[in-house]
Amino acid sequence: MTPITEVEGRRLALSNLEKVIHPATGTTKGEILHYYATVADCLLPHLRGRPLSFLRYPDGPDGQLFFTKNPPPGTPSWVKTVPVPRSDDTNARQVVVQDLPSLMWAANLVVEFHTPQWLADDPAVADRLVFDLDPGPPATVVECCHVAVWLRERLAEDGLDAYAKTSGAKGLHLYVPLEPAPSEQVQAYAKQLAVEAEADLSALVVHRMTKALRPGKVFVDHSQNNAAKTTAAPYTLRARREPAVSAPVTWEEVESCGSPAQLAFLMADMAPRLQDHGDLLAPLLDPDQAGRLP
Questions:
Q1: Residue of 208, 140, 134, 201 lying closest to 173 (CA atoms)
Q2: β partners of residue 219
Q3: What whole-number distance in Å separates Cα of residue 75 and Cα of residue 111?
Q4: Total Cβ atoms within 10 A of residue 63
Q5: Are the C-beta atoms of residues 51 and 117 closer than 8 Å to each other?
Q6: CA-based nearest residue to 146, from 111, 188, 197
Q7: The whole model's pTM is what?
Q8: How many other CB atoms are there within 10 angstroms of residue 275's CB atom?
Q9: Which has the closest alpha carbon to 56: 19, 15, 94, 111?
Q10: What is the rounded average pLDDT for all residues in the chain?
Q11: Which of 79, 91, 148, 158 lies 20 to 30 angstroms, CA to CA, from 263?
């Protein structure tokens, strides 16, 4: 029988709680749900108001993985959805997770949470900029950290503050809180800085996606500022054999990183990190911290 629980007055059917999702650690679905309940106070502010895309992995990373933007079948009526017209579906809607019941409903589907850089009430007007720093082997997150520091200093020249998190895979994400600006302008500015990074760090950086250019270098992916693109949300678990988290990190951690293990965080690491640091990405949520594109 599927257990029924009540979360803030909403009844939820939570299924297969003993099912192992992350096989390297034996992490069960029940443990995943407990994790999301634990980090909800920090995660939810980064999800609210943003149409979500889900990477679903209900049978773990070795099973079928599928990306979906449409509300899944059986989505409860109390889960908020918003219109997000697309070229292939002018009536399309997407889920917006606003509260703990909605978060736990979505987590029960076993998903990665992915968000755009804009809010549902102002589509294609970005309130933040993102760089996805993706290392091409044998480069690792260590090389990403060198590039991240360069980008932080370059952004500071334009009066912009940057904040870092791990991708939860092998790279690093940089976020910049912005006064709202059209996504096209944000993407153009991000591409400009990626080109500058390649010019200044030619042995380390590539700004084009061409795979043949990437071995041993860091791809500075600026394309996720496109209004149609999304990025793994802070604190989301990733579809990997271990329950890896896209975890906010301090600049001291970035600057001192000497091995990939130093910036690899699992589900169990997050409660003590939140106790020590709070939400390191809280400035993204503060309008007073937003900078203006030059």
A1: 134
A2: 134, 206
A3: 14
A4: 12
A5: no
A6: 197
A7: 0.95
A8: 8
A9: 111
A10: 95
A11: 158
Neighbours of 257 (CB within 10 A): 22
**pLDDT tens digits for range 100-117:** 999 999 999 999 999 999
Report the C-alpha gap between 171 and 153 in whole angstroms: 19
Bridge partner list, 182: 125
Other C-beta atoms lying within 10 Å of the C-beta of residue 268: 13
Q: Which residues pair with 176 in a beta bridge?
A: 129
- Judge whether 51 and 40 are in contact, CB under 8 Å: no
Whole-angstrom distance, CA of residue 2 vs CA of residue 121: 36
- For residue range 258-281, what is the model confidence (pLDDT) as tens digits? 999 999 999 999 999 999 999 999
209 Cα distance to chain centroid: 20
For CA atoms 164, 169, 171, 174, the dihedral sign is: negative
181-201 residue pLDDT tens? 999 999 999 999 999 999 999
> And the tokens for 224?
């996720």
The single-letter code of the amino acid at 135 is: P
Residue type, 199: A
Q: By CB neighbour count within 10 A (0-12 exposed, 13-18 middle, 19+ buried), where does 11 fall?
A: exposed
Helices (H), the chain: 29-47, 100-108, 141-157, 183-200, 251-255, 270-277
- Residue showing tokens 């071995």: 215
Can you give the C-alpha Rg of the chain in angstroms? 19
Average pLDDT of the residues in 49-61 = 97
The pLDDT value recorded for residue 210 is 76
